[in-house]
Amino acid sequence: MKKIILILILLIAIVSSNYANIKVVASTTVIYDLVKEIGKDKVAVDFIARGDQDPHFVEVLPSYMLKLRNADIFFRIGMGLEMWSNQLIDGSRNSSLKVIDLSTDIDKKEVPNYKPDASYGDVHPFGNPHYWLDPENAKVMAKEIYETLASESHQDEAFFKKNLDEFNSRIDKKMQEWTNTMQKVKGKSVLFFHASWIYFADRFGIKTAGFVEPKPGIAPSPSHNAELVQIIKSKNIKTIVMENFYSDSAPNQLAQLTGVKVVKVATAVYGIKSVNSYIDMIDNIVNQIIQNS
Amino acid sequence: MNKLLFALFLLVIVSGSIDAQSSINPDISLIGTFNTFTNFIKGTPEYGKLNFGDPEMELFVDGYLNPFARATANISYENNTFGVEELYGNIVRGLPFDMQIKAGKFLVGFGKLNTVHPHAWPFLERPLFHQVFFGEGGLNDVGVNFSFLIPTGDVFTNLDLGIFKGKSMIPQTDSNAIDHGINPIFVGRLSTFWSLDDYTNLEVGLSGSYGAYSKGNLILFSIIKNVDNIETFNYLYGGIDFKFKYAPDSYTVLTIQGEGILNHRTVPRVDFFGVDNTTASSKKISNSGFFIYADYKFQKQFSFGVKYDYTAGILGDLPTFYSLSNDDKNSTQGFETWFSYYPVEETSVVRLGLQHLIYDYDDGTSRPAETTIKLQFLFSLGPHKAHPF
Ligand SMILES: [Zn+2]
Description:
CATH superfamily of chain B: Porin
CATH architecture of the largest domain in chain A: 3-Layer(aba) Sandwich
Order of helices and strands of chain B: HEEEEEEHEEEEEEEEEEE
Structural class of chain B: mainly beta
Low-confidence stretches of chain B: 14-23
Structural class of chain A: alpha/beta
Order of helices and strands of chain A: HEHEHEHEHHEHEHEHEH
Mean pLDDT of chain A: 91
Number of domains of chain B: 1
Largest interface: A-B, 34 and 38 residues
Strand order of the largest sheet of chain B: 1-3-4-5-6-7-8-9-10-11-12-13-14-15-16-17
CATH architecture of chain B: Beta Barrel
Radius of gyration of chain B: 23 Å
Strand order of the largest sheet of chain A: 2-1-3-4
Helix content of chain A: 40-55%
CATH topology of the largest domain in chain A: Rossmann fold
Number of helices of chain B: 2
Shape of chain B: globular
Distance between the termini of chain A: 75 Å
Helix content of chain B: under 10%
Number of strands of chain A: 8
Low-confidence stretches of chain A: 14-18
Strand content of chain A: 5-15%
Distance between the termini of chain B: 39 Å
Oligomer: heterodimer
Shape of chain A: globular
Bound molecules: zinc ion
Number of helices of chain A: 10
């Protein structure tokens, strides 16, 4: 009898040591990818917003609450991007869930110094939350993820640290490549669809000529499009860059009127078939912009 | 006085939100509704004319009390009076058995639609059976609800059990309806949610409600022989509901939703067998109601849909022991269609709706069908809210 118990205990120990011991849910697929990079097989991770979905507008589904119900940690972008996330946390009923906002150490841009008001568009009330499009910020996010995972599982700290260092050095290497490639468009003006590109544009020295959305989160309008035609002509703009989950009907109109090229890219991992990691994603964005400029 | 209190309340909230721009402030949103309508009901003063309804308003104040609990107040302004539509606290996390407790006055979850505020419905008119079986404002009551997650693996299953004051269930206002009797009622709902794929979701629910809706001495209903007979009149509701949503991209949503109710209750009935031979007794009756609608939203800014309604009872009847939910003889059918335009996101919407009502009387009374056309303007001021399924 004692032997059986001993074997059982051993079995449980073996199974549980191989089993991923931290359960993580990421609000977006970019965070999901970074958690996988740092946590590898010590972490079981799932995500909520799909890569082909506008992260501002995710429906509060009970199935997402179930994901959070069993999680130890929930990572989110913060700055009001996931206005749907509190309802999911409430619905999860998980009172031991750690909610980690990855924007904490980010150098935030476009933080309003006026009282946020819906007349400015209502989806960026705490500043521009699209910071993950700057690869340097991916390193800041990765560090925050590393610190959280390490404090959750001290015995794996060295393992996570090693993964973090590896990830950072890969980003650094790619960063040189991306910067070199983007030299070709440096200083040029680009039109963007949604105000999600300031971090990317600043990093690679692109000028933002304007946005197809009149205000963040506000649908394109004919009068605004007419203004954009003037901007495209006067500034000799060659490219409109947009997320692939937005409707391209307004950008296509501009393309017909002015000959500008519409570049649809994924701004999340799994946003299109070939983008399966954060590095894939930036690769794809950089290549698409270069090919169409 | 009502208005003065409300003005004070507003002042406190507004000054609070100006002084302290911290994120600890509750969220405040204001929904305004403005209706114009015309009907084609012969003999009414509105016939064929453009009528302006009084504006309606709902003010929501809600926020976290702490990470585990929320509180919500909803003040309404309708028919030129202010009212507390909802006022409740909700403990959402940290309770034993992963329970959630909601206490106060709120929209009760018999079916799914009743807990959704009318401004968030795709259509304009409250389902007919809700008006007949829950009253004109829907099932809105004071009480406590306990919500439990049922462990069904990857499928989300929720059980709500609530006990309420039962005011919504006592629609009788006629002189016969003595001693409404404040007896608690019970309401429960078991619901299951499936993600069929990344773009398609389905929720199915079963509801039940039981309680007394009135108490009284049968002598007061008519000339009765059986003097000592004080009765409690009970009802039992069973409900079934479903909601299906298909959203292939962020611009297009197809929603199909339906709910049905079965009602069993005891009602007082008077039988005449001649001048000196009248008896009053309680009888058991059964009746039912349901609605189903489809709404198609396209290009994010437009939607249109159709709804079919059936309910026992004649819509608009005065509430008595023989009418509405106590009516097992007559019925009302409704057809509704609508077209909505959301000019800027969901902060404003213009809706054009048509409702056609058909009345069916058991005794052969003929009453012409009634058509109403409504144009509604609705705006919503306040922070952007996420959309629950
Ligand atoms: Zn945005």
